[in-house]
Amino acid sequence: MYDVADAIKVADYFVVVTGTSRPHVRAMYEDVHHRLKRLGEIHSRAEGADLGWWVLLDYSDVVVHIQQDEARDYYGLDDLYGDCPKLDWQAVEVKDTGALADA
C-alpha cells in the first residue's frame, strides 16, 4: 500500500495487489467489493472487472489496483509510486465489525 497523498491529488492511498489469473483477479475484486459494501463503503467506479487483467476500484481516498503479474510489470505502478511512503497494511488497525468475518 502506497501513501500517494503528496504525489497525486486524486487519492491518498493506492493498494496494489497481484492476481495469478483472470479468475483470481475477478475473485479478489468480488471479495473486496462485497466485504467493503457490507461495511457501507461503495466504490465510485470499478474498471476492468470484465477483463480480469487489471481491475481498478475507486473508493475516493483509496484506490485499489488488482492486476495480473503481466499487467503489474507492464504498467509499473510500483516504479511510478515506489518513492512514496509504503504502509504495512497488516499493521493498520481495523475495528472489528463482524461483517468481515461473515464474508
From TrEMBL:
One of its GO terms (biological process) is negative regulation of ribosome biogenesis. Pfam families: RsfS. InterPro entries: Iojap/RsfS/C7orf30, NT_sf. One of its GO terms (molecular function) is ribosomal large subunit binding. Belongs to the Iojap/RsfS family. PANTHER family: IOJAP SUPERFAMILY ORTHOLOG, MITOCHONDRIAL ASSEMBLY OF RIBOSOMAL LARGE SUBUNIT PROTEIN 1. This is Ribosomal silencing factor RsfS.
